[in-house]
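#lab-general

N.A. 3:47 PM
ok so I finally got the sequence cleaned up, no stray characters, all 293 residues accounted for. can someone with queue access submit it? mine expired

B.Y. 3:52 PM
send it over

N.A. 3:53 PM
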Amino acid sequence: MIAVAPPVLLLDAFSLFYRAFFALPPMVTSQGQPTSALYGFSSLLLKLLREERPRGAAVALDAPTATFRHQEFSGYKANRPRAPTSLQRQLAALPALLQAFGFPTFTAPGFEADDVLAALSRVLSAAGEAPLVVSGDLDLLQCVGGAARVHIVSRGAGAGRTYDEAAVWSRFGVAPAELPDWKALAGDVTDEIPGVPGVGAQRAAALVRQFGSVANLLARLDEVTPEPLRLAIAARREALTLWRNLAALRADSPLPPAPWFAPFDAAARDRVQRAFEALEFKSLLVRLDKIAV
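B.Y. 4:20 PM
back already:
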């Protein structure tokens, strides 16, 4: 990842933590504490600090309450499995690790971490910063625009991919702001949004390019061909509007006053060193020593 200007990292903590847990084999300390997710998450942060040399970072977390999406659509993420016990134990240790890194942590009751990241990206862009959102969730690509970019971590051992507006267009065939309309039509298994039968990724992109939005598509439904497609869309008129609204990130979610990020300084490095020693992350201690502060 090569940044045009030093970015501000905006970290989707739970998404990155979950991916680290499922990407690595089980790890435990000499006292039997599971650490694989803590290790993978820490390793990623060190990599970002080393390669991006950011001005600072902030972290977004989901609040432990239902969101407006759950209230509007009972099926939203309704069938996600419960986290394994080992992961739950590591999640309990995550706040202390985040405190060691020293990055401010933001939540907003009634909203998801994705909404908080969109809000942070918006205010930092307006302040002349270059936000770099880091997540495993493609929904965050809606944050792309201007100096704001999104890095999607890889599912495997790869380096992941950083998206600007051109990269979003290349992959999805629509603009970042049009992704909620695309998702409403194409569906999303992860968020349990069904989409329109027979409308895959390419057809959804073509419809969004032709009509501009779900709202315009429904207003000009008589222009849709072939007839089976028009009837399938018409049968889901109300649902499509709902799905589009569920998919759209809320960049107006509430934030406290600035500061919205903090640098990784010498004091933070000392705290992280002590945390790594307690977690027995010997290999990460070597990498930590190479981080410039």
